[in-house]
Amino acid sequence: MEKIIEESKQGESLVLEQKSGNTKKLFIESYGCAMNFSDSEVVASILLENGFNTTQILEEADLVLVNTCSIRDKAEQTVRKRLEKYNAVKKRQNPKMKVGVLGCMAERLKAQFLEEEKIVDLVVGPDAYKDLPNLLKEVEDGNDAINVILSKEETYGDISPVRLMSNGVTAFVSITRGCDNMCTFCVVPFTRGRERSREPQSIMAEIEDLWQKGYKEITLLGQNVDSYLWYGGGLKKDFDKVTDMQKATATGFDQLLEMVAVAYPKLRIRFSTSNPQDMHESVLHVIAKYPNICKHIHLPVQSGSDRILKEMNRLHTRAEYLDLISNIKRIIPDCSITQDMIAGFPTETEADHQDTLDLMEAVKYGFGYMYSYSERPGTLAGRKMEDDVPEEVKLRRLQEIVALQREHSAIRTNEFVGQIVEVLIEKESKKSPEDWSGRNSQSIMTVFPKEHYKMGDFVNVLITDCTSGTLIGKATGYSDMNRNEEI
């Protein structure tokens, strides 16, 4: 196996794994959630063993794949524009190029892509990536190819992902797939299937491989990491049917998180995403106990109105959510809490919107991902609820949410001024080649002069200034998190 260093568009050094003897080139783009980016690494690994090395140059690719997101209409429109670009390149420069659509959009639209998007040669859903070599053979034989069958077992736990566009410092490790929650606005259960967890031994083996390769931080990934549950295999919903012995020896998320923290005390650990109804106090105590687990919890709420939460089929109330926030602040006082919020869900009134703003005032999130409601075909909201909030009202409410979040973000970053924070150097600052950039434990981007430090160093930084989204400071020395040989 070879490693080729290339420069990204941002000037960062990226490590591309290549296999000598491979004669074909794969260009792959990912959109949407972190799980899609993690899945693309699985796809690249499968194709690496089938003759494809990855490339960053679209025009030279034999195979172009786009890993898609269906969570919002805007994401789908972005993918369609990319397909138009692929089509133009194929016509003008590389007529032998094959193009495929992966991921959630592929699962949702299925054969429609082959019929409407004339450039598309194959369509592959999130659970069918191991079938890619067979599908590519079909394409080479002149046939369209499609596999979007949802699996009840597939976790790709037996595949060592190729780290695409890697900085050699941070990496994703997938621990669950699918979701059982059935929020009325969300397509994930329909595009990624039922929830199932990955065997702990395979997770630990992947982390060990990353550790040996010098990675400094991992993010444990899942649509709902807090409901991670390994009892020997199968779907989470079948746990009640297993033996008492299987239940007694089952591994939950709190146990998995502690296993990783204990085994790799010099490895920084993050996780995403959590659902409020599944986050238990035991997880909070594990986070508080181990300094290498980042003090940041992304905790989507979507709305501050109990009525809207019920319409969304969110399995928590406003009061339950605020109780959880109180527990987090009590057990992990320095924890940053971030949010997802939807403005303009069907039937949302001004009073409901005000409830959301009031909730934000009560929590004062560090930052958030905020969107206006986008009806997704196939969801319960799409089938049963009228999208009755006018677009201009959605936009105004979203702007109010964003403006309030900006105020709260400024409050949260200002709390760090005068403090020393531990930062993992991840990349060069976008604004100055003289500065490094990396996140602190609370996941706030921090910039400081490079001096003699290098990518992958854990550095203590004295914060002297801030914006609403960035901490600014000066390094005071290496952190204890550095491996002994690096200090």
What can you tell me about this protein's structure?
The protein is an alpha/beta fold. The chain has 3 domains: 2-147, Methylthiotransferase, N-terminal domain (Rossmann fold); 170-414, tm_1862 like domain (pyruvate-formate lyase- activating enzyme), CATH 3.80.30.20; 420-486, OB fold (Dihydrolipoamide Acetyltransferase, E2P), CATH 2.40.50.140. It contains 15 helices and 23 strands. Strand 3, helix 1 (34-48) and strand 4 form a beta-alpha-beta unit. Helix 13 (350-363) packs parallel to helix 15. The longest helix has 24 residues, at 391-414. It is globular, with a radius of gyration of 23 Å.
What's the SSE blueprint?
Elements: E1 2-7, E2 13-18, E3 24-30, H1 34-48, E4 52-54, E5 63-68, H2 73-92, E6 98-102, H3 103-109, H4 111-116, E7 122-124, H5 132-140, E8 145-147, E9 170-174, E10 176-177, H6 188-192, E11 196-197, H7 200-212, E12 217-221, E13 229-230, H8 244-248, E14 251-252, H9 253-263, E15 268-272, H10 281-289, E16 296-298, H11 306-311, H12 318-331, E17 336-343, H13 350-363, E18 368-372, H14 380-384, H15 391-414, E19 420-428, E20 435-439, E21 445-449, E22 458-466, E23 470-478
Parallel strand pairs: 3-4, 3-5, 5-6, 6-7, 7-8, 9-12, 12-15, 16-17, 17-18, 21-23
Antiparallel strand pairs: 1-2, 10-11, 13-14, 19-20, 19-22, 20-21, 22-23
